[in-house]
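Lecture notes, part 5. Sequence design as translation. It can be helpful to think of inverse folding as translation between two languages: the language of shapes and the language of residues. The source text, in structure tokens, appears below.
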């Protein structure tokens, strides 16, 4: 399971590489990555959990239904946040949990071997779980400015999920580093 998670993180990471090929040393790459991301979607707020909750529950688009591509579920950012971050605090419509969807509790994931080795925070685990579900459609639209109608709706409302995307990028970098240091069985 951990190898599968590491492989998934490694396959997702290139989506967040915004610099030109051959860009200098690692620190220059990191500086460029962070500055380019900030210029495109805005700066992350320092109180990550509060900001992430606002991006999904109170800011523009939080109640805008969208259809995820891979499961064809219709959901909203608020519903996804409530399901993932607040877990058993609500009764959820069965259609959001249909199609074989399993949403593991954040506390359980925080104790997993890879999360411990990567030193993931609660906010980072929430961001990864959100991205691995239907919210990938919204975050990808924000990062790629496509589909334009999805991107524009969030942009016009001033909600490009900057804190969530920054926390997600941090988590993916940590997981990739931890996975590369983990010996794999032969």
């Amino acid at each position: 399971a951990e190898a599968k998670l590491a492989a998934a993180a490694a396959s997702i990471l290139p989506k967040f590489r915004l610099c030109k090929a051959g860009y200098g040393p690692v620190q220059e790459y990191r500086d460029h990555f962070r500055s380019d991301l900030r210029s495109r979607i805005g700066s992350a707020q320092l109180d990550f959990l509060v900001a992430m909750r606002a991006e999904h529950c109170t800011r523009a688009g939080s109640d805008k239904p969208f259809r995820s591509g891979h499961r064809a579920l219709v959901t909203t950012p608020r519903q996804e946040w409530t399901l993932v971050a607040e877990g058993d605090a609500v009764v959820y419509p069965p259609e959001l949990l249909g199609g074989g969807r399993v949403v593991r509790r954040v506390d359980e994931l925080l104790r997993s071997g890879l999360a411990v080795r990567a030193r993931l925070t609660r906010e980072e685990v929430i961001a990864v779980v959100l991205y691995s579900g239907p919210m990938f459609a919204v975050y990808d639209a924000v990062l790629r400015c496509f589909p334009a109608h999805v991107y524009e709706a969030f942009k016009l409302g001033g909600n490009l999920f900057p804190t969530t995307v920054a926390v997600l990028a941090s988590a993916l970098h940590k997981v990739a580093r931890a996975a590369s240091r983990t010996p794999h069985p032969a």
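The translated text above is only one of many valid answers, since several sequences can fold into similar shapes. The first strand starts at residue 66 and ends at 67.
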